[in-house]
Amino acid sequence: MAQEEVFTHNGFYTDERCHIRGPIVWVNVFVATPENRNKTDAEFMDLVAETIHARISKKTPHASVSVTPEPMHHRVMGCLSLPARGDYGAFTRFWDLYFDAFLRDVLVLALFYQAECAAGSIEIDRETLFRSFHLRSDAF
């Protein structure tokens, strides 16, 4: 089964891996809730960036952010997954060392996507992002 991607450019899906070579981990941000469905793409990416920043700054220690070896937005409703360069095996052994680094990497990527959405260059596939597959209890 082909995986669905979330961002489109001129009607074509973008490369989820963002041309990162080597091992990748995925930072999953769970903010695609029904009340956020009406936000513009740029506003939604602002929310993603704010959620990541809040987790980095420890303002919300349990913000809905996780790191996994595969993107979760393919199978979990309400999730936007962004790639970061890294080895998931090393991450699980040295969680404290890598977690903030991964979040800082994807914060830059989220801000890039926010600017691209604001400029109208990239759009979010809302059908993929807000579909009703599987609800995580901690995503809201």
Give the SSE map.
Blueprint: E1 7-9, E2 12-13, E3 24-29, H1 41-56, E4 65-68, E5 80-85, H2 88-93, H3 95-119, E6 123-124, H4 126-129
Antiparallel strand pairs: 1-2, 1-6, 3-4, 3-5
Helix pairs in contact: 1-3
Q: What features would you describe in this structure?
A:
The chain has one domain. The chain is built from four helices and six strands. It has 140 residues and is α+β, with helices and mostly antiparallel strands. It starts with 6 loop residues before the first strand and ends in an 11-residue tail after the last helix. The longest helix has 25 residues, at 95-119. Helix content is 36%, strand content 16%. The strands form two sheets. The protein has a three-stranded antiparallel β-sheet, with no helix packed on it. A three-stranded antiparallel β-sheet has the order 4-3-5, with helices on one face. Helix 1 runs antiparallel to helix 3. Mean pLDDT is 82; it is low at 133-140.
Name its key features.
140 residues, three-stranded antiparallel sheet, 4 helices, 36% helix, 16% strand, disordered C terminus
Quick rundown:
The chain has helices at residues 41-56, 88-93, 95-119, 126-129; strands spanning 7-9, 12-13, 24-29, 65-68, 80-85, 123-124. It is α+β, with helices and mostly antiparallel strands and 140 residues long.
